[in-house]
From TrEMBL:
Protein name stated in the entry: Uncharacterized protein
Stretches for region Disordered: 63-84
Length: 84
């Protein structure tokens, strides 16, 4: 029978490093979350404005393409009438 595999033991320095690292990361994430929560209404306004702007641009470009297609069809019809 094989003897059970034991996980390698980390040195105290490595354990301490990772504990500090986790604390720093946790503090940073907490600060970011608090800042976002604090400024949420203003951020929401910016996001809504950007969404509306992109939607408007999409509609305008669709209209532009539609009118270009219409003009193209008109020119093709005009060309056929002249007997080309």
């Amino acid at each position: 029978m094989r003897e059970p595999i034991t996980p390698p033991q980390l040195s105290p320095e490595i354990k301490q490093f990772f504990e500090r690292f986790i604390q720093v990361v946790t503090a940073t994430v907490r600060a970011i979350v608090q800042a976002v929560a604090k400024h949420y209404p203003a951020l929401r306004v910016i996001v809504e404005r950007e969404i509306a702007r992109r939607k408007r641009i999409a509609q305008l470009s669709y209209r532009k393409k539609k009118s270009q297609a219409k003009n193209w069809r008109k020119w093709r019809k005009r060309g056929r009438r002249t007997g080309r």
